[in-house]
Design goal:
By secondary structure, the protein is α+β, with helices and mostly antiparallel strands. It has one domain: Outer membrane efflux proteins (OEP) (Up-down Bundle), CATH 1.20.1600. It has helices at about 5-20, 25-35, 40-55, 115-180, 185-220, 245-255, 255-275, 325-390, 395-430; strands at about 25, 65-80, 90-110, 230, 280-295, 300-315. The chain starts with 6 loop residues before the first helix and ends in a 6-residue tail after the last helix. Pfam families: OEP. It is found in: Cell outer membrane. Belongs to the outer membrane factor (OMF) (TC 1.B.17) family.
Length: about 425
């Protein structure tokens, strides 16, 4: 008689082959895709390029402007002229032409050092854009990593639910066998079937959440939302984080704090530009002009001129209704506000760091605790299954052991995810989110 493969084994093999055919997306590949494709990161990179293009001496007003111009005026008119001696000259369709063209240069030689402060401000704007890009990358990569590890956790919960469904099916079979031989009532079979249906309902809900989270990750990676994949089977948490080292990195590398410090320097440069108005502005102009004109009637029939022109100018604001004083006072207050904002941000960041680190320590402790609980719950379930198999414990005790096991697995998985979440937030605050 040929050997027949059980139907359940066929389903298991098909499921294994299906998983193997899916893309296994690692956390390294996930972060790489996010850096390459994420819309927010791409926009921030373009914003930084815009700031980089702006860093130019010419854009700061330090270089001259050179313009070429040409003007050609033509007229055709009927003329009638009466001279002093009484003679009259008339000409129909008289032509008058006037052509001017040349090159002119305008250059601000001195503006109270405003142009130099403006050039430094353009550099700080670029630095600010760099800090903002770093913050966008940290935020986006952090969100992507959280979604990824959430999928790992959900995948583990699906595995746990799959295990409990298998146990519930075994319970239904045992209850049916016991009922068949008269050792159990129909109620026991029905209760076992209800519990199995409950477990399968939970499985369907968990699968729905898992699929929706995969769609969310595909959106964050800016790729086809229907791209199917699996994630790593386990979550590994960095256990080497120390609060003093994190505090030092927050104060030196946090991009939000860096942006506030750069904004303060920009305010200081803006005040320098305001104070520059107290000094004179000196300009120079020069050019080469060619002028040609023709007239059909008059004392001068035609004229031509060409040559260089040059000159200097200076302006000094003597009184502007005390606007200069008001602008300088406002500029000083803006710098003071920037200093206050930096102090407040330091305190807020260190506060968030301290509370998150305490959560991190708690979650690390829970990993050990829940890991032990899972092992105990698994041993208890194995013993309970054997006792139920020989009929020495009631169904409710079996169900309790089963729920204790599944809950222990879920709590253990959640403890690792929460610890990883704390780790990601801590590294985001420190400006050093590495894989």
């Amino acid at each position: 008689m040929p050997y027949r493969i059980p139907l359940r084994s066929i389903f298991i093999l098909l499921n294994i082959f299906s998983i193997a055919a899916q893309e296994v997306l690692t956390i390294d590949e996930t972060v790489k895709l996010a850096l390459e494709n994420n819309f927010q990161i791409r926009t921030a990179k373009n914003d930084l390029k815009i700031d980089e293009y702006g860093v130019s001496p010419g854009y700061a007003g330090m270089l001259p402007s050179v313009q070429a111009s040409i003007t050609d005026n033509n007229r055709t008119i009927n003329l009638s002229q009466v001279r002093l001696d009484g003679t009259v000259q008339e000409l129909d369709n008289a032509v008058n032409n006037n052509l001017n063209y040349g090159v002119a240069l305008d250059w601000t030689l001195f503006d109270g050092l405003r142009m130099f402060a403006n050039y430094e401000q353009l550099k700080e704007n670029r630095n600010l854009g760099d800090a903002e890009l770093k913050q966008v990358i940290l935020t986006t990569v952090g969100e992507v990593m959280i979604t990824y590890y959430d999928l790992v956790q959900q995948q583990q919960q699906l595995s746990a639910l799959d295990s409990t469904i298998l146990i519930s099916k075994q319970r239904v079979e045992l209850a049916q066998n016991r009922f068949t031989i008269g050792k159990a009532s129909k109620l026991e079979v029905l209760n076992a079937q209800v519990d199995l249906n409950t477990d399968e309902t939970l499985m369907q809900r968990q699968k729905e959440l898992y699929v929706n989270t995969k769609i969310q990750l595909n959106r964050q990676l800016a790729r086809d939302l229907e791209t199917d994949f699996t994630v790593a089977p386990e979550i590994f948490v960095d256990e080497s984080l120390l609060l003093p080292e994190l505090q030092t990195k927050v104060l030196s590398e946090n991009p939000q704090l860096m942006a506030s410090q750069i904004s303060k320097r920009i305010s200081e440069l803006e005040l320098k530009q305001i104070k520059a108005a107290r000094l004179p502005t000196i300009t120079a102009t020069t050019g080469y002009i060619i002028s040609e004109s023709e007239s059909s009637l008059g004392f001068i029939v035609s004229s031509n001129s060409k040559g260089f022109s040059y000159g200097f100018g200076a302006t000094l604001n003597l009184f502007d209704g005390f606007t200069q004083n008001r602008d300088e006072k406002i500029g000083k207050l803006q710098i003071e506000n920037s200093e206050v904002a930096i102090a407040q941000q330091k305190q807020d960041l260190l506060t968030t760091l301290g509370t998150t680190y305490q959560t991190y320590l708690t979650n690390m402790s829970l990993i050990d605790l829940e890991g032990n609980n899972e092992a105990i719950a698994k041993e208890n379930l194995d013993i309970t299954v054997e006792k139920y198999r020989i009929g020495i414990i009631p169904p409710i005790e079996f169900r309790t052991a089963q729920l204790n096991y599944i809950n222990a697995k879920v709590r253990f998985s959640n403890a690792k995810f929460q610890a990883k979440l704390s780790e990601i937030i801590l590294k985001q605050l420190a400006g050093n989110l590495t894989i």
